[in-house]
Specification:
Layout: H1 14-31, H2 36-50, H3 60-82, H4 88-100, H5 106-118, H6 122-132, H7 138-145, H8 149-172
Helix pairs in contact: 1-2, 1-3, 2-3, 3-4, 5-8, 6-7, 6-8, 7-8
Amino acid sequence: MKEPSQHESPAVDVAQLVAEHQLSVWRCLRSWGCSPQEAEDLTQETFLKILEKPFEDQGDAATRGYLRTVARHLLIDRRRKEGRQTNIQAVENIDLFWANTDDRKPEELLEMLGECLQGLTDRARLALELRFQDRKSRTEIAEALEIGEHGAKNLMQRAKQQLRECIELKLKD
């Protein structure tokens, strides 16, 4: 029988680890400003990185936290190599949110977001959908809503603040 090398860990099923956590790592990277393709690349790099050393599963919450930390460091390293600045404080604020929700399933968080989105006005919800689903510019959003660019910016800022407050309230329950 072959002995496991230092790069193989009998403590974790790699396929199961990836299946359980790949989507949450990808979503986290997207929340930090990565494009879908960049998030996909960094998600793969994250799993490759953690498999370089023996990995022992410490439970869902700890594993998600560890994966986020590895992904965050890979993102920061990539940004440095590209010569791009990363707003570390913004990444840390988002990471704090993810850490505070580690005991919840991603589907539960998405359900909360959906409920909070329903609490927005139709215009505010449309503005956010145009921005984050359709990737429209502020100018395009302003044209679609027949308002000025500054009005579109203010509408989206207020809507994001309402979502933040709604989700924080739901997380306290």
